[in-house]
Structures are given as C-alpha cells and as structure tokens.
From TrEMBL:
<dbReference type="InterPro" id="IPR006137">
    <property type="entry name" value="NADH_UbQ_OxRdtase-like_20kDa"/>
</dbReference>
<protein>
    <submittedName>
        <fullName>NADH-quinone oxidoreductase subunit B family protein</fullName>
    </submittedName>
</protein>
<keyword id="KW-0004">4Fe-4S</keyword>
<keyword id="KW-0479">Metal-binding</keyword>
<dbReference type="GO" id="GO:0046872">
    <property type="term" value="F:metal ion binding"/>
</dbReference>
<dbReference type="Pfam" id="PF01058">
    <property type="entry name" value="Oxidored_q6"/>
</dbReference>
<dbReference type="GO" id="GO:0051539">
    <property type="term" value="F:4 iron, 4 sulfur cluster binding"/>
</dbReference>
<keyword id="KW-0408">Iron</keyword>
<comment type="similarity">
    <text>Belongs to the complex I 20 kDa subunit family.</text>
</comment>
<keyword id="KW-0411">Iron-sulfur</keyword>
<feature type="domain" description="NADH:ubiquinone oxidoreductase-like 20kDa subunit">
    <location>
        <begin position="29"/>
        <end position="140"/>
    </location>
</feature>
<dbReference type="InterPro" id="IPR052375">
    <property type="entry name" value="Complex_I_20kDa-like"/>
</dbReference>
Length: 162
C-alpha cells in the first residue's frame, strides 16, 4: 500500500469515528426531533459510536433533517446545506422528510421531500421512527460513508482527469 493510500485510509478511519451532526426541523411536528434527542440519552447513547450532537452547521459533518420542508424553509435549508463543509452527508428522518408525509397534499404548502431540495444520503421512514431505527440507520450509514470518502472522491477525481 502506498503512503498516499495509507494516509487516505487513516484519514477515513479517524473521520468515521468523530462525526458531528446538526439537526434541523423544516416544519414538522417535533415528534421526530424528540426521538432524535432520545438517541443521545443514556439508553441509546449515540455518542458511543463517535457521532456527536453539535448543531453548528459550519462545524458539522452531517445534517439530520426532519419535517416536510415548508415553503418558508426551502431556501434556508439550501443555505444551511452549503454551510456544512465537505465532506458532508444528509440524513432525512421521519415520513415527512422522506415523502412530505401528511403535509404533502393539496393545500399543504410544502416542497419536500427533503431529497427534492438537497441531496440526501440516507432516509429513515416512520412517524416518528423509533430511536433504535434512527441509531441503526445512522450507525450503519455514516461511518461507512466517511470511512470511504477519500477513496470515493479520489476515484471520482481520477475518473474526471481520465
Ligand atoms: S414524520 Fe410524524 S412525527 Fe415526524 S415530523 Fe412528521 S408528523 Fe411529526
């Protein structure tokens, strides 16, 4: 293994063990937010997996989005997304974030689901999803995503240069 490749691997390893998240509610009922907070209680303890609640987008790696994205939230969500530095990931939590939920119907005034406003890496459906489901999705997806980030980006860059 070359030095460059070894350093990439080390960087990915470290990055996958220190993930900071910002949670944003784009117009949901707060049910999903309560379940996300429960993930940080002693019972589920998401921090044991190296996933920390930070809530400063400029210092975060992940945006966890709840809610159906109301018209008022669309531009703010895009701005928040751009404030998160690369590499970054987005997780949509709850049926509202995944499909617009009960608000996504005539007269609902929403422009979700979230994936139609910003790129989404993982979705956790449920109204609201249980903390076990959120923890399981986040722990399955995020470390793997950040562990392979350098290689994925390196591969994309090499493909562009070819
Ligand atoms: S998915 Fe259900 S619990 Fe979550 S914000 Fe929407 S209505 Fe509320």
């Amino acid at each position: 293994m070359s030095l460059k490749s070894a350093l990439k691997k080390l960087k990915g390893f470290v990055r996958s063990r220190s993930i900071h998240v910002t949670v944003v509610n784009t117009g949901g009922c707060n049910g999903c937010d309560i379940e996300i907070l429960a993930c940080y209680t002693y019972r589920y303890d998401l921090e044991q997996y190296g996933i920390y609640y930070h809530n400063n987008p400029r210092k975060s790696d992940v945006l966890i989005v709840t809610g159906p994205v109301t018209y008022q939230w669309r531009d703010k969500l895009v701005k928040l997304y751009h404030k998160v530095p690369e590499p970054k990931a987005v997780v949509a939590v709850g049926t509202c974030a995944c499909s617009g939920g009960i608000f996504n119907q005539r007269g609902g005034r929403v422009c979700g689901p979230v994936r139609e406003v910003i790129p989404v890496d993982a979705e956790v459906p449920g109204c609201p999803p249980r903390p076990e489901e959120i923890v399981s999705a986040v722990v399955d997806v995020l470390p793997a995503l950040f562990r392979s980030w350098e290689f994925r980006r390196g591969g994309a860059r090499e493909a562009q240069e070819a």
